[in-house]
Amino acid sequence: MREVEQIARHPILWVTTLCVPLFSLLFMDTIFSSGGMNDLSIGVIDCDNTPTTRAITRTLDSSPTLHISHYYTSTSEALEGLRRCEIYGFVEFPERITEAMMMGTEATIPYYYHYALMSVGGEIAAALRTTLTLASIEPIAEVATALGVPTEHITTFLEPIGVDIHPLGNPTLNYHKWLTAPFFYIMFQIVVLLVTLYSVGSERTRGRGGEWLECARGDMLCALMGKLLPYTLSFFAVGLVAVWVLDKSVGLAGALWWHAVLTLLLITASQALAIFVYSLVLILGISMSFASMIGSLGATLSGVTFPLRSMYPIFDNLALALPVRHFMILSEGESWSSGWVHIVILLAFGLLPLITLRRLQHAIATPER
Predict the structure, then answer these.
(1) pTM of the prediction?
(2) Given this model, what pLDDT does residue 237 score?
(3) Which of 126, 158, 190 is the last residue of a domain?
(4) I need a surface site. Which of 140, 148, 193, 346 has the fewest CB within 10 A?
(5) Rounded to the nearest 10 degrees, how much is the dihedral formed by the CA atoms of 357, 362, 367, 368?
């Protein structure tokens, strides 16, 4: 009852416990709803200004990924627009580029893109490369057709090797299906870590640790369970909503009850990790910064943004120290025969606070200076 009263008395607690995760769910489900990144702004510098370059410009603008929002007169002006984030990239058509293309001599169309945002930069680069490659061979095809070369010979000459691509794991290349759920749960873990740290650490910073322990009759474990139970139930309620929404939106692998169990394991493991971190640091601000770093690393070390098999082995092993990594493996449909180890590890995270329980009890009884 004591913690429920504190949650009701401090709006920041119920806002971060309920509103922030639900907003994150809505945001993630909306931003990737189209299944990909569309209409990314780019710029164009057309120093040649011929029908061919204007046709290539229209082709770029017709691409679903790209949208030409700015026209520049110089490279320095376009680079400044890139730095101001007006655009994500730009294409430059040099003078006499059309003549070079028609003559079959070496012709280079430079393009630049912002790679600080890797996902956006990768999309821009792929779209520009594909569109410009197709546009650059069009003048050659027109000349060959005018000379009477059969169409099948032109195709064989310009594209001697056909590429048949089969993307494994995501055959439809749908961002909505493969990024919405992972990014939500990574954000969800960060919220759980921070709320748990704040609820426990604020008792000491406000000098109410003695009162808290007194309510639990001096039993630190009982005090922790009583404090965290309302948050666990609140987070679990949000998790159930997320499971239902994500299943309707993108489709989850396996039964819904299984994802509900995994969500509860993720919540309890993250809470235990947060208590363990605070027990080691004993300074609320530093421990919250450290927990934020741990949560942010989940995006990379869980294999969402970069394949772990392409990393050094040390990072693959380091990822096992994050609850969200085990959660991702299990939620992707890992079989029980090979996934039981990750379930055991998630349960083992709950034992971490027992290692530092005495240290935490002594610190809580002593107000932070």
Answers:
(1) 0.70
(2) 93
(3) 158
(4) 148
(5) -60
Q: Name the helix (H) or strand (E) containing 70.
A: strand 66-72
Judge if 352 and 224 occupy the same domain. Answer: yes
CB-based burial, 163-200: b 16+ in 10 Å, e otherwise: eeeeeeeeeeeebbbbbbbbbbbbbbbbbbbbbbbbbb
Q: Which residues pair with 66 in a beta bridge?
A: 40
How far is residue 268's CA from residue 117's CA, in Å, rounded to a whole number? Answer: 32
- Supply the DSSP string of 219-287, one letter for each residue: -HHHHHHHHHHHHHHHHHHHHHHHHHHHHHHT--SS-HHHHHHHHHHHHHHHHHHHHHHHHHH--HHHH
* Closest-CA residue to 231 (of 257, 200, 208): 200
Residue 237, helix vs strand vs coil: helix
How many angstroms separate the CA atoms of 229 and 196, rounded? Answer: 11
**Amino acid residing at 367:** P
Q: Are residues 200 and 343 in the same domain?
A: yes
The answer to whether 276 and 355 have CB atoms below 8 angstroms apart is yes
Q: Residue 233 corresponds to which tokens in the numbers above?
A: 């139930």
Q: What pLDDT, on a 0 to 100 scale, did the predictor assign at position 193?
A: 92
- Residue 149 has a pLDDT of 64
214-245 pLDDT per residue, tens: 887 888 888 888 888 889 999 999 999 999 98
Residues 46, 130 share a domain:
yes
Alpha carbons 43 and 144: distance in angstroms, whole number: 31
Print the domain residue range for 309.
Answer: 2-32+176-365
pLDDT at 60 over 70: yes
pLDDT (tens digit, 9 = 90+) per residue, 316-341?
Answer: 777 888 888 888 888 877 666 677 88
If one counts the domains in the chain, the total is: 2
Which residue, 49, 44, 91, is CA-closest to 69? 44
Residue 163 inside a domain? The answer is: no
Q: Which residues contact 334 (CB under 8 A, 6 or more apart)?
A: 342
